[in-house]
Amino acid sequence: MSTPYYVSPEQIRQDKEDFVRRGIAQAKEVVVLEYKDGLLMVAENPRKTTFKISEIYDRIAFAAAGRIAEYEILRTVGIREAEIKGFRYYREDVTAKWLTNLYSQHMGAVAQAWDAKPLEIELLVCELGVEDAPDNSTLQNNRIYHIAFDGIYSEEEKYAVIGGRATAITEILQQHYTDNLELSAALKLVTDTFRTVEADAEDDYEITPQTVEVACLEQTIERRKFRRLSTQEVTTLLA
């Protein structure tokens, strides 16, 4: 009788992690950062047929990097589950923390299954704080959650980056980001950062209003706080 082939769990996990990192390394980046009136979300995305950034619920948005088919399924599931929970209970029960746990459980289960390919994606789940929330309330502050392929998540402060060159972009933001930026200044900071990292790339391309996808969660909007900016609006803000 032949000895069954054995691979240690540690080796399987390492192989999956290396596999996902190679896939994510090819993904264009998404940046989420706080500005004066809310949260700004900017993605390198020259395609006009797909979105990396989307509204999930009243004050919650979703951003992804990696394989489109894989994160599109999670986006759809998130919208459905949020609507069901808000309808059955209270709209206030739908939070970014709850949605992050939902995504984390699913992504973690896929990553831990020895016979399944891990999801080649990273996610950001963002929630706009409530201006009139009681002092010291958890609802008062903006929330940004970063979810890795294996379901492990962390809460980021001020800004977060996903995609192949996330480390390089984060280092630039650490040097130049300041609090209470106007929307135009925050957008210029992100696009200038994209231009800096593209300048060092072998297959660089020009960062223009046509090659970025921009949206924001804005306090000044009534009820549903998500707003997607048109190419013309981005052009005006960057002028």
Describe the structure.
This protein is of the alpha+beta class. It has one domain: Glutamine Phosphoribosylpyrophosphate, subunit 1, domain 1 (4-Layer Sandwich), CATH 3.60.20.10. It is 38% helix and 23% strand. It has 6 helices and 10 strands; from the N terminus they run H-E-E-E-E-H-H-E-E-E-E-H-H-E-E-H. The protein has a 5-stranded antiparallel β-sheet with strand order 8-1-2-9-10, with helices on one face. Helix 4 crosses helix 5. The protein is globular, with a radius of gyration of 19 Å. The termini are far apart. The mean pLDDT is 89.
- Please state the overall shape, judged from the principal axes of the Cα atoms: globular
Distance between the termini: 74 Å
CATH C-level label: Alpha Beta
CATH architecture: 4-Layer Sandwich
Oligomer: single chain
Q: Major sheet: order of its strands?
A: 8-1-2-9-10
Total domain units: 1
Q: What is the helix/strand order?
A: HEEEEHHEEEEHHEEH
What fraction of the residues are assigned to beta strands by DSSP?
15-25%
Contiguous helical run count: 6
Report the major sheet: 5 strands, antiparallel
